[in-house]
Structures are given as C-alpha cells and as structure tokens.
Amino acid sequence: MLCVNPPSGVSRPGARPGGPDVVVASTGAVTPVGADADQTFTSVRAGIRRMLEQPDLYACLPEDPRFEDSEPLVASAVYHLDPAARAAGRMAEWLGTLAGEAFRDLARRGRLEPRDLDRLGLFLAAPARPGLGPEQRDELLRHFQHHAGLAPLAAAHVQLGGHATALELLERACELMRKGTIARAAVGGVDSYLHRPWLERLDREWRLLSTRNPDGLQPGEAAGFVLLEHAGAAEARGLAPLAAVRAHGSCRVAPGQPQTTGAELSRLLEPLLPAEPPLVYCDLNGESARTREWAFAVSRLGRCLPDGYAVEHPASALGDTGAASAAMSLVLAAHALHAGDAGRRSAVIWAAAEDGERRAAVLERV
After folding, report:
1. Per-residue pLDDT at 5 exceeds 70
2. Who's near 119: CB < 8 A, 6+ residues apart?
3. Are 173 and 139 spatial neighbours (Cβ–Cβ below 8 Å)?
4. Nearest to residue 61, comparing CAs of 202, 222, 192?
5. Where are the domains of the chain?
6. How far apart are CA 128 and CA 140, in angstroms?
7. Which of 19, 73, 148, 252 could lock 103 by a disulfide, CB 3.0 to 4.6 Å apart?
C-alpha cells in the first residue's frame, strides 16, 4: 500500500512526503440529477433522485414466468442529453458523449484556455465489459474529444476497469505531476449500465434490484472529472482550490478469499484516516456483500475511525454508476469540503472493485 502526504496532524508509518500540493482546482459532471457538477452536488445533498421505471430499456425477470409478468427496470438515466446513441446500443458513442459533456463543464469551471491544454494529462476510467475492447475504447475517445470540443490531446489515457479505476488514475496523475511530466490532469470516470446486454447479464446473475431479487443494485449512468493542479498554478489562474489531495492507497483481496470480512479494507483505510471525524464517500450500492464488508471494516477499525464520521454513498441518488462511481465520489467530496459541510476538514473516498481491488484517497479542505 502506498500512502502519500498523510492528512494534517497525522504521522503514519510508511508515508512519504510529496512535492508541491496537488489540489482539486475544479470539477465537472453529468448525472441523472444534474447537468453539471454544481447542480449534481446540490441535488445529491438535497436527496433528490430520478429513479424511475424504464420499460423501454429493460424488463426484469419474474420469479416464476409461468405465473408472473416481467416488471420494468427501475433505473436512473441522464435525461437532458439526446439518448439516441444509448437507445441504439452504441455504447462507446454514448459513453464518449457523457464524458465529453462532463469535461466541457470542467473546462468552463476550471477556466481552461487552449494554452492550458498543452501539458494536460487526461485520465478516464471506463467500464470493462463485453462489447468494449480496444477498438471501442478508441471510438469512445473520439466521441469524447468531439463533445468536449478538444483537438487530440498529447497525453490521453482511457483505462477500462471498474469501481476503483478512477482512484488508480488519480494516484498515477498525482505521481506524474510531482515528477513534472505533466502540469495538470483531468481525472475522471464514465459509465452507463443502461445497455440491454449488460442489464440482462446483471439480471441473470441476481444483481438487479427487483421483486425477484431484493438484494440488488439499481443501475445508473454518469460522468465526472476533477481537475488536478499544483496549488500555486491554480491560484495564479484565479481559481480557489476546492480541496487538496493528501493521501491514497490500495490493496487487493486474494482470489477465492471471502470479500466480506473487511480485513483488507480496514488495513487499507487505517493509515489514511485523519485525527478528526471525516466524511466517508464510498460505492455502497444496496448489495448486501458490499454493506457487510464495510460493516466488518468499521468494526475492525474501532477507535481508529474517529467518532462522528459521516458516510455518503452517491448510488442512493445516482444509482450504481460503475466505473464513474469513484470519480463522482471525488467530485462530491471536493464540493462538500469547499462548502464547509458540517465543519469537516477531510474526506476519505474508498472503492471496491469486483476483481478484488480496493482503493482509497483522502481529500482535505484548503
């Protein structure tokens, strides 16, 4: 596990100092409850949801098809963009559209001029699912650049993965910035479960929430970005940083090992926890296995987790957003810290990938 720049007032074994502060200078997002990052944060904070029946997308399997009818999928969908690509099953195009619109929001809020893009690194997490391979990844990038209004970037990286991938990209971007390889980075994630083959697979595997399966997730879609810069560079461009990146780490649950004991997650989080009660943003999505793992981790952490912490799980408002979920947690955590949410000074973001990877990061109010 790697720990960089532990939270203020915390000295952890194995931690190493970084260079100049890397801060979240701006954010961008497109979600079912917001056309941009501000609207999304306001909606999530207010508990607004757009979890609706989506009969045109999918009908969930009944318990017994001999006696029961299928029921419409309940999901959260982006409503303010033309969904023609999603409806036609062109998922690379739809994902590129969502990501491009979220980046456009980031660029506007972050005052990115053409000259600021020269040494910008783009790091985008996208879902690793059947039907999305290297060819579709390149197509996604082309549609992203079109909707973002960008010429091809010199340093653009799209990584297919899952819930934790955006936090892996955050760590990579911070390291490249501290080495001086890039001056700033746009780190984000995009996903949409609302593609019939993917919904069918979730349903067959008893993953979709329905009458047949009360222990399931409600699918959603979203795209989110954070703009990382050195504090001085952001302030020189007239931006007030939202939060500083103080720490990050990772671990992995061994293949075949039960993933609900919380042992690995607690060992990951313990050296990252601040002394004061933090906000905790995570990818709990309604599935009991994720909830149990977190519950066991809390029990194992004991007094290491300061009393008074608050847990936020954006899936309750957005649905499960897969590869976009960690990016959305970063966006929402940065906004919450900047808004002075309950006076808290730090936020711990963690994510659990289905392949056993566990990742976490710490943001601190500046």
Report:
1. no
2. 155, 182, 183, 184
3. no
4. 202
5. 23-236, 246-364
6. 13
7. 148
Name 133's Cβ contacts closer than 8 Å, sequence gap at least 6: none
pLDDT digits (tens, 9 = 90+) for 38-84: 999 999 999 999 999 999 999 999 988 888 889 999 999 999 999 99
pLDDT at 339 over 60: yes
Cα distance between residue 146 and residue 306, in whole Å = 46
Residue 178, both tokens: 């501290």
Q: Is 220 exposed, middle or buried (0-12, 13-18, 19+ CB in 10 A)?
A: buried
Structurally, at CATH architecture level, domain 246-364 sits in 3-Layer(aba) Sandwich (3.40)
Query: Secondary structure of the chain: what % helix, strand, coil (to 5)?
Result: 35, 25, 40
Token digits of residue 52: 């609706």
Domain 23-236 CATH superfamily: Thiolase/Chalcone synthase (3.40.47.10)
Question: Which stretch of DSSP H or E encloses residue 197?
Answer: helix 196-204
What's the rounded mean pLDDT across residues 221-247? 96
**Mean pLDDT value across residues 313-322:** 96
Give the span between the Cα atoms of 262 and 270, in whole angstroms.
12
- Quick check: do 23-236 and 246-364 share a fold? yes
Who's near 245: CB < 8 A, 6+ residues apart? 5, 21, 22, 23, 24, 170, 174, 228, 361, 362, 363
* Cα angle 13-17-21, degrees, rounded to a multiple of 5: 135
How does pLDDT run across 9-33, given as a tens digit for each residue? 333 333 333 346 999 999 999 999 9
Kindly calculate the radius of gyration of the chain based on its CA atoms and give it in whole angstroms. Answer: 20
Residue 231: C-alpha distances to residues 24, 26, 285, 366 (Å): 9, 12, 34, 10
